[in-house]
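Before relying on records like the one below, remember that each one covers exactly one chain. Contacts with other chains, cofactors or solvent are not represented anywhere in the record.
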Amino acid sequence: MHIVMLTRVLPHHSIGGMQAIAWDLARAFVRNGNKVTVLTTEVAGRNSSFIEDGVHVVALRKTSWYRYGARWWRESGLTFSRDLAVDCDALLSVSAGGFGLLRFRKEFPKIAFVMQSHGTSLGEVRSKWKTRSSKALLSSLRNLAWLGKDLCSYGRFDAVVAVGDVVAEELHAKPIS
């Protein structure tokens, strides 16, 4: 089975929980005999294509791991549809990494589209409002803007998998449920 994972950030970019989970999962898929291609943002000091621990990493040039941008959405879609979809069996969107590829569902009906959820925009808003920090409150506006994208995208995946119980509760609560 060929699994294509989309994530804007890996341990190659920075240290964090989402990065570690994505990379550990990719390596586990390889250990279980699967072909894995991770489509990600540019990795400083690395070629745009490299293999590590059996995982093929395709890093899109001039894309930033700090946040999604127009270049990520355009280039990830082009790279997937042109180069990776041919022998892909499952697409795994790490967080919102694969939202831009949902437009290809009809073109590739045999590919399973799965999302790995690390949290929801609404959960982020609630968390930031609890801090009562003015910086957190302001940054929650970006999360509110993403809520509409989340609501429009989750139902278009074949499956949405939560990384833990708290995230599963967020996904089953209104208005996301």
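Residues 12 and 135 are 28 Å apart (CA to CA).
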